[in-house]
Every structure is written in structure tokens, then in C-alpha cells.
Amino acid sequence: MAQKISFLNIKGGVGKTSLLVNMGACLAYMGRRVLIVDFDAQSNASIWLMRLDRWNGLNKTPEKFLLNLFKDPSAKMSDCIQRSPIRDTDGDEMLPRLDLAPASFTLMDLEHEVPQIENKPFYRRFYEALSEVEDDYDFILFDCPPNFFYTTQCALFASDHVLVPSNPDALSIIGFHLLVDKLARFKTDTETQRLSAGSPSPEIVGIALNAVKPGTKIHVPLERFNSQIDRFKTQGKVSEKTHIYPDLVRHSVTVGRAVMLGIPTVLMSKQDASINLAEDYIKLTKHLLEQLGDAEAEA
Ligand SMILES: Nc1ncnc2c1ncn2[C@@H]1O[C@H](COP(=O)(O)OP(=O)(O)O)[C@@H](O)[C@H]1O
Ligand SMILES: [Mg+2]
């Protein structure tokens, strides 16, 4: 069964999408079968992986997007999946083990314009739909918006783990407090549904520090983050496995260039990548694999 991970932080612009796209690509590169589910209506991961022209074209068939799962009870998860969306300029597949369930801007309609079915919250509907394809993947990664609205709830209800991309600054540390409280509240509120569906109870596995500029005095925010995590552990609010990942992702314009090229950093040529940022993502991914007990973590 797939390991399911929500990339979540209630702060925007911290690197959720770029970490997810790059770590997802690293996992596929290392031989794992990966599904990226884009639950952010901004559709950044979808546009990055499909490139704007193909994503624009797909918008003519709304039934191929996640929103349709909630509008049409007979819709299937497999109808919302783009196989191997990363293509080279000739249209050939570049990373065959990585698939995408894309978002469109209309995903935001889920908040107010799609009626809920009684006794079946959206997250339960999504959890059941996802089971159709779960065995096809080793990892399913959810790109979440910076809030706790319906799509984040769908991701969390299905997830075993939560990975928190963060920047090493004071506002991110404050935001982490809110995230921990909201997650605990969500788990309590959905307990009955979780027990009857047999869905996992998501735990924060780690905080991945992103876009760290050279010369940043990282030890000060690290100490603050660590003492907050220790306090949450004592209060039983996070699990013993929650920790800050030792490998940081450096700040680099390479990330923006990868978006322009429509490929993850790990697939960029040496000329396009100004520094070998891919190494940072590979280290993080290996750490995640080890933490999750993936037998071939060193692959
Ligand atoms: N390591 C990095 N170095 C420099 N810029 C980065 C890095 N990671 C992300 N960015 C940039 O920061 C912005 C926000 O990143 P993104 O992954 O979209 O965050 P989020 O999904 O949390 O909103 C984007 O413009 C992205 O290109
Ligand atoms: Mg994002």
C-alpha cells in the first residue's frame, strides 16, 4: 500500500510545491512509483509538471480534474490522473514512474459551490475514490494550499504523514504552532469517520527547511524550532519522530528556472542548474525514505 504524505504549512510561499515536485521526482528517479495530487487551486504543481500549454488544453475537459470527483458521484480517481506528465520538447516521457492528479483554478469552487452529500464529507468521498489507485503507487504526495479548508482536509484524512516545508524565520515558527493545533483539532473532529473508514491518523514526520540563504545564522531559528518541538512532544501534541530534517535546501534561482522549463530540478542539465540543488533534494528524500523504513533507502 502507498505511503501517503501531505506537504502542508499554513504559511504560503515557504516551498511546499517546490519541495513536493522535487522530492516526488527524486522518489520516482530512485525507482518508486509516485502520484502527486495537486490540492491547491493555484495549480502551481500541475502547471509546472504539465507546462502551461498542455494544462490549458486539459481545461477543456473538466471531468479530468479533481473537482469532478466531488461533483459527479460516479467519477473515478483514475479518470483524474495524467500518466507521466513530464515530457521533453519532443513530447517523450522523462520520468515514467511519476503521475499527476492535476488541479484547475475551479478547484476553489469546492468551498462554496459543490453540495455535500449527507454523512459523507468531501474527505471521506476522496478517501474512498483514492483506494481505486492506491496499489499502483509506492508514494502519494498531496500538495496542500496554505489553509485547512476542504482540499487540505481531503489530503490529511488520507495521509499517514505530514511534512512541513518551512523557512527559517520567526513567522514560520509561529505558524508551526497553529498548524500543530489545527491538525490535532482535525484529528479529533474526524475520529468517528476515521474509525469507520479505517483511514490513518496523520503524524508530522518532519520540518524541511527551504530556501536557506548563504550566511543565514541558522542556529538561532533552529534552537527556537527545536525547543518548540520538545514542548509539543512533552504535551503529546506531536509524535516522537517529529524533527527538523538535518539537510537544508539552499536558496537558488535554479528553482524558478526549473518552473520555466517545466521540469523538476533533478532532471535539469548542468548548464541550466547554477548550483547542484538536486543534491539537496536527493539528501532530503533519502532521509525521508530512511525515516519511513523504506528498505532500499540507499538506492
Ligand atoms: N530553494 C529555493 N530557492 C529559491 N527560491 C525558491 C526555493 N524554493 C522555492 N522557491 C521560490 O519561492 C516561491 C514559493 O515557492 P513554492 O514552492 O511555490 O511555495 P508554496 O507552495 O509554499 O507557496 C516560488 O517562487 C519558488 O520558485
Ligand atoms: Mg504551493
UniProtKB/TrEMBL annotation:
- Annotated AAA domain residues: 3-191
Q: Which InterPro entries match?
A: AAA_dom (IPR025669), DNA_Partitioning_ATPase (IPR050678), P-loop_NTPase (IPR027417)
Tree of life domain: Bacteria
Annotated protein name in UniProt: ParA family protein
Q: Which organism is it from?
A: Pelagicoccus mobilis
Stored CDD domains:
ParAB_family
